[in-house]
Amino acid sequence: MSEDTAAGRHQTDADTGRAGIVLAGGRSNRFPTVDKALAPLDGKPLLWHAVDSVAPTADELIVNCRRDQREAFAEVLSEFPIRFAIDRVPDRGPLVGLRTALAESTATYAAVLPCDMPSIPAAFLDFLFTRAKNRTGAVARFEGRLQPFPAVVHVRAAAAACREAEATGADRLDAFISAVDPHTLPERIVRAHIDPTAFRNINTHDDLAAARDS
Protein backbone atom coordinates (compact mmCIF):
# COMPACT_ATOMS: atom_id res chain seq x y z
CA MET A 1 0.00 0.00 0.00
CA SER A 2 1.18 3.57 -0.64
CA GLU A 3 1.94 6.19 1.97
CA ASP A 4 -1.47 7.76 1.34
CA THR A 5 -3.56 4.67 1.99
CA ALA A 6 -4.21 4.93 5.71
CA ALA A 7 -5.23 8.59 5.61
CA GLY A 8 -6.83 8.77 2.21
CA ARG A 9 -8.67 5.51 1.48
CA HIS A 10 -12.39 5.97 0.96
CA GLN A 11 -14.53 4.15 3.49
CA THR A 12 -16.08 1.64 1.10
CA ASP A 13 -16.41 -2.11 1.28
CA ALA A 14 -13.91 -4.13 -0.70
CA ASP A 15 -14.87 -5.02 -4.25
CA THR A 16 -17.52 -2.35 -4.68
CA GLY A 17 -17.76 0.63 -6.96
CA ARG A 18 -15.53 1.95 -9.70
CA ALA A 19 -11.98 3.25 -9.69
CA GLY A 20 -10.30 5.64 -12.08
CA ILE A 21 -6.60 5.00 -12.60
CA VAL A 22 -4.24 7.34 -14.44
CA LEU A 23 -0.71 6.16 -15.20
CA ALA A 24 1.81 9.00 -15.07
CA GLY A 25 5.13 7.52 -13.93
CA GLY A 26 6.99 7.51 -17.23
CA ARG A 27 10.11 9.56 -17.93
CA SER A 28 8.73 11.38 -20.99
CA ASN A 29 12.00 11.21 -22.92
CA ARG A 30 10.41 12.91 -25.92
CA PHE A 31 9.51 15.87 -23.68
CA PRO A 32 13.04 16.78 -22.56
CA THR A 33 12.18 20.19 -21.10
CA VAL A 34 9.13 19.27 -19.01
CA ASP A 35 7.42 16.26 -17.44
CA LYS A 36 4.94 15.34 -20.15
CA ALA A 37 2.18 14.90 -17.58
CA LEU A 38 2.52 18.60 -16.74
CA ALA A 39 2.65 19.87 -20.32
CA PRO A 40 -0.20 22.38 -20.79
CA LEU A 41 -3.19 21.87 -23.05
CA ASP A 42 -5.95 24.51 -23.01
CA GLY A 43 -4.50 25.97 -19.84
CA LYS A 44 -4.38 22.70 -17.89
CA PRO A 45 -1.73 19.94 -17.67
CA LEU A 46 -2.28 16.76 -19.65
CA LEU A 47 -2.53 14.88 -16.35
CA TRP A 48 -5.37 17.12 -15.23
CA HIS A 49 -7.31 16.39 -18.43
CA ALA A 50 -6.91 12.62 -17.98
CA VAL A 51 -8.08 12.76 -14.36
CA ASP A 52 -10.95 15.06 -15.30
CA SER A 53 -12.02 12.52 -17.95
CA VAL A 54 -12.26 9.63 -15.54
CA ALA A 55 -13.50 11.49 -12.44
CA PRO A 56 -17.23 11.55 -13.36
CA THR A 57 -17.30 7.76 -13.73
CA ALA A 58 -15.29 6.79 -10.63
CA ASP A 59 -15.83 6.45 -6.89
CA GLU A 60 -12.09 6.66 -6.24
CA LEU A 61 -9.24 8.26 -8.19
CA ILE A 62 -5.72 6.84 -8.21
CA VAL A 63 -2.66 8.29 -9.92
CA ASN A 64 0.41 6.12 -10.33
CA CYS A 65 3.68 8.04 -10.40
CA ARG A 66 7.24 8.24 -9.14
CA ARG A 67 7.91 9.68 -5.70
CA ASP A 68 9.67 12.72 -7.17
CA GLN A 69 6.54 13.61 -9.18
CA ARG A 70 4.09 13.48 -6.31
CA GLU A 71 4.38 17.02 -5.00
CA ALA A 72 3.89 18.70 -8.38
CA PHE A 73 1.04 16.34 -9.27
CA ALA A 74 -0.74 16.95 -5.97
CA GLU A 75 -0.61 20.67 -6.62
CA VAL A 76 -2.18 20.54 -10.08
CA LEU A 77 -4.80 17.97 -8.98
CA SER A 78 -5.77 19.70 -5.74
CA GLU A 79 -9.45 19.90 -6.74
CA PHE A 80 -9.72 16.11 -7.06
CA PRO A 81 -9.81 13.53 -4.21
CA ILE A 82 -6.68 11.78 -5.45
CA ARG A 83 -4.74 8.92 -3.91
CA PHE A 84 -1.22 8.36 -5.18
CA ALA A 85 0.17 4.90 -5.87
CA ILE A 86 3.91 5.48 -5.73
CA ASP A 87 6.26 3.21 -7.66
CA ARG A 88 8.55 1.55 -5.13
CA VAL A 89 11.13 1.08 -7.88
CA PRO A 90 10.77 3.69 -10.65
CA ASP A 91 11.19 3.18 -14.38
CA ARG A 92 10.00 -0.41 -14.56
CA GLY A 93 7.33 0.30 -17.14
CA PRO A 94 3.56 0.71 -17.33
CA LEU A 95 2.70 -2.84 -16.26
CA VAL A 96 4.43 -2.39 -12.91
CA GLY A 97 2.83 1.02 -12.54
CA LEU A 98 -0.58 -0.44 -13.28
CA ARG A 99 -0.09 -3.27 -10.78
CA THR A 100 0.93 -0.71 -8.15
CA ALA A 101 -2.22 1.30 -8.81
CA LEU A 102 -4.50 -1.74 -8.81
CA ALA A 103 -3.16 -2.73 -5.39
CA GLU A 104 -4.51 0.58 -4.06
CA SER A 105 -8.05 0.08 -5.27
CA THR A 106 -11.04 -1.01 -3.24
CA ALA A 107 -13.24 -1.19 -6.34
CA THR A 108 -14.44 -4.08 -8.44
CA TYR A 109 -13.68 -2.43 -11.78
CA ALA A 110 -11.25 0.29 -12.80
CA ALA A 111 -11.01 2.54 -15.81
CA VAL A 112 -7.38 2.96 -16.83
CA LEU A 113 -5.91 5.85 -18.79
CA PRO A 114 -2.39 7.10 -19.41
CA CYS A 115 -1.70 10.74 -18.65
CA ASP A 116 -1.10 11.46 -22.34
CA MET A 117 -4.66 10.70 -23.53
CA PRO A 118 -6.40 13.96 -22.61
CA SER A 119 -9.49 13.72 -24.82
CA ILE A 120 -11.31 10.52 -23.82
CA PRO A 121 -14.87 11.50 -22.88
CA ALA A 122 -16.29 10.31 -19.58
CA ALA A 123 -19.35 8.97 -21.42
CA PHE A 124 -17.16 6.53 -23.36
CA LEU A 125 -15.52 5.31 -20.15
CA ASP A 126 -18.97 4.81 -18.67
CA PHE A 127 -19.89 2.80 -21.77
CA LEU A 128 -16.81 0.61 -21.24
CA PHE A 129 -17.85 0.06 -17.62
CA THR A 130 -21.26 -1.21 -18.74
CA ARG A 131 -19.67 -3.58 -21.27
CA ALA A 132 -17.16 -4.87 -18.71
CA LYS A 133 -19.83 -5.89 -16.20
CA ASN A 134 -19.65 -9.62 -15.39
CA ARG A 135 -16.53 -9.88 -17.57
CA THR A 136 -12.82 -9.46 -16.92
CA GLY A 137 -12.86 -6.10 -18.67
CA ALA A 138 -13.62 -4.19 -21.86
CA VAL A 139 -11.35 -2.58 -24.45
CA ALA A 140 -11.85 -1.00 -27.86
CA ARG A 141 -10.80 -2.12 -31.30
CA PHE A 142 -9.73 0.90 -33.30
CA GLU A 143 -7.84 1.26 -36.58
CA GLY A 144 -7.72 -2.52 -36.88
CA ARG A 145 -6.14 -3.40 -33.54
CA LEU A 146 -6.95 -3.71 -29.87
CA GLN A 147 -6.26 -0.52 -27.95
CA PRO A 148 -4.72 -1.05 -24.50
CA PHE A 149 -6.15 2.30 -23.40
CA PRO A 150 -8.66 3.34 -22.46
CA ALA A 151 -9.57 0.11 -20.73
CA VAL A 152 -11.96 -0.94 -18.02
CA VAL A 153 -10.74 -3.99 -16.12
CA HIS A 154 -11.83 -6.16 -13.24
CA VAL A 155 -9.36 -5.10 -10.56
CA ARG A 156 -8.42 -8.53 -9.22
CA ALA A 157 -8.37 -10.14 -12.66
CA ALA A 158 -6.16 -7.35 -13.96
CA ALA A 159 -3.77 -7.65 -11.03
CA ALA A 160 -3.43 -11.36 -11.76
CA ALA A 161 -2.89 -10.60 -15.45
CA CYS A 162 -0.10 -8.15 -14.57
CA ARG A 163 1.61 -10.84 -12.51
CA GLU A 164 1.16 -13.39 -15.29
CA ALA A 165 2.63 -11.06 -17.92
CA GLU A 166 5.57 -10.16 -15.68
CA ALA A 167 6.24 -13.81 -14.85
CA THR A 168 6.67 -14.58 -18.53
CA GLY A 169 9.10 -11.71 -18.91
CA ALA A 170 6.67 -9.64 -20.95
CA ASP A 171 6.52 -5.96 -20.18
CA ARG A 172 4.29 -4.82 -23.04
CA LEU A 173 0.71 -3.78 -22.55
CA ASP A 174 -0.50 -6.12 -25.29
CA ALA A 175 0.71 -9.07 -23.18
CA PHE A 176 -1.36 -7.72 -20.30
CA ILE A 177 -4.46 -7.32 -22.46
CA SER A 178 -4.05 -10.86 -23.75
CA ALA A 179 -3.84 -12.18 -20.19
CA VAL A 180 -6.94 -10.25 -19.11
CA ASP A 181 -8.92 -11.53 -22.13
CA PRO A 182 -11.46 -8.68 -22.00
CA HIS A 183 -14.58 -8.09 -24.01
CA THR A 184 -13.66 -6.26 -27.22
CA LEU A 185 -15.86 -3.51 -28.62
CA PRO A 186 -16.02 -3.81 -32.42
CA GLU A 187 -14.66 -0.80 -34.28
CA ARG A 188 -18.04 0.12 -35.73
CA ILE A 189 -19.43 0.39 -32.19
CA VAL A 190 -16.43 2.39 -31.02
CA ARG A 191 -16.76 4.88 -33.86
CA ALA A 192 -20.45 5.29 -33.08
CA HIS A 193 -19.65 6.35 -29.52
CA ILE A 194 -16.47 8.41 -29.76
CA ASP A 195 -14.67 10.87 -32.02
CA PRO A 196 -11.65 8.99 -33.44
CA THR A 197 -9.34 11.86 -32.50
CA ALA A 198 -9.97 11.06 -28.84
CA PHE A 199 -7.64 8.05 -29.17
CA ARG A 200 -4.73 10.37 -29.96
CA ASN A 201 -1.72 10.03 -27.67
CA ILE A 202 0.43 13.06 -26.93
CA ASN A 203 3.92 11.64 -27.37
CA THR A 204 5.85 14.66 -28.67
CA HIS A 205 5.72 18.45 -28.69
CA ASP A 206 4.39 18.22 -32.24
CA ASP A 207 1.51 16.03 -31.03
CA LEU A 208 0.76 18.60 -28.35
CA ALA A 209 0.80 21.43 -30.88
CA ALA A 210 -1.61 19.48 -33.10
CA ALA A 211 -3.95 18.90 -30.16
CA ARG A 212 -3.91 22.61 -29.36
CA ASP A 213 -4.81 23.44 -32.97
CA SER A 214 -7.63 20.92 -33.26
TrEMBL record:
<feature type="binding site">
    <location>
        <begin position="23"/>
        <end position="25"/>
    </location>
    <ligand>
        <name>GTP</name>
    </ligand>
</feature>
<dbReference type="InterPro" id="IPR025877">
    <property type="entry name" value="MobA-like_NTP_Trfase"/>
</dbReference>
<dbReference type="InterPro" id="IPR029044">
    <property type="entry name" value="Nucleotide-diphossugar_trans"/>
</dbReference>
<dbReference type="GO" id="GO:0005525">
    <property type="term" value="F:GTP binding"/>
</dbReference>
<feature type="binding site">
    <location>
        <position position="87"/>
    </location>
    <ligand>
        <name>GTP</name>
    </ligand>
</feature>
<keyword id="KW-0460">Magnesium</keyword>
<feature type="binding site">
    <location>
        <position position="116"/>
    </location>
    <ligand>
        <name>GTP</name>
    </ligand>
</feature>
<feature type="binding site">
    <location>
        <position position="36"/>
    </location>
    <ligand>
        <name>GTP</name>
    </ligand>
</feature>
<comment type="function">
    <text>Transfers a GMP moiety from GTP to Mo-molybdopterin (Mo-MPT) cofactor (Moco or molybdenum cofactor) to form Mo-molybdopterin guanine dinucleotide (Mo-MGD) cofactor.</text>
</comment>
<dbReference type="Pfam" id="PF12804">
    <property type="entry name" value="NTP_transf_3"/>
</dbReference>
<dbReference type="GO" id="GO:0061603">
    <property type="term" value="F:molybdenum cofactor guanylyltransferase activity"/>
</dbReference>
<dbReference type="InterPro" id="IPR013482">
    <property type="entry name" value="Molybde_CF_guanTrfase"/>
</dbReference>
<keyword id="KW-0342">GTP-binding</keyword>
<keyword id="KW-0501">Molybdenum cofactor biosynthesis</keyword>
<keyword id="KW-0963">Cytoplasm</keyword>
<comment type="similarity">
    <text>Belongs to the MobA family.</text>
</comment>
<dbReference type="GO" id="GO:0006777">
    <property type="term" value="P:Mo-molybdopterin cofactor biosynthetic process"/>
</dbReference>
<keyword id="KW-0808">Transferase</keyword>
<keyword id="KW-0547">Nucleotide-binding</keyword>
<feature type="binding site">
    <location>
        <position position="116"/>
    </location>
    <ligand>
        <name>Mg(2+)</name>
    </ligand>
</feature>
<dbReference type="GO" id="GO:0005737">
    <property type="term" value="C:cytoplasm"/>
</dbReference>
<feature type="binding site">
    <location>
        <position position="64"/>
    </location>
    <ligand>
        <name>GTP</name>
    </ligand>
</feature>
<keyword id="KW-0479">Metal-binding</keyword>
<dbReference type="GO" id="GO:0046872">
    <property type="term" value="F:metal ion binding"/>
</dbReference>
<feature type="domain" description="MobA-like NTP transferase">
    <location>
        <begin position="20"/>
        <end position="172"/>
    </location>
</feature>
<keyword id="KW-0548">Nucleotidyltransferase</keyword>
<protein>
    <recommendedName>
        <fullName>Probable molybdenum cofactor guanylyltransferase</fullName>
        <ecNumber>2.7.7.77</ecNumber>
    </recommendedName>
</protein>
